[in-house]
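Format notes (please read before filing issues)

Several people have asked whether sequences and structure tokens are stored in separate files. They are not. Every record keeps both together, in the order shown below: the sequence lines, then the token lines. Line labels are part of the format and must not be stripped during preprocessing.
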Amino acid sequence: MANKKCGVCGGEYDYCLKCEKTHAWKFYACSPEHYQIHMVLDQYRGGVFDKEMATDCFARYGITVDKDLSYLLPEVERDVRLIIDEKPIEEKSE
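Then the structure lines:
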């Protein structure tokens, strides 16, 4: 067993190197839900998802603008909020 730190919430958890093939998500996160957050951010940063696609994925996982995300690492919360909080720029009327 190895002790790992979740890349999404920062919490510590046990990781079994022998179970790596069965539970590969545990290499990155302490739970499948946190792994989903990790994967959406990874796909967004890699250019696979645009903001709309990433926002839709987060919404499917229950992550919306009004959701408390304080359980996430500050940099993860910041990045998620940058994706889901973007407001459309209002056009100036002349």
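For reference, the curators noted about this record: The chain has a mean pLDDT of 88. Residues 32-45 form the longest helix (14 residues).
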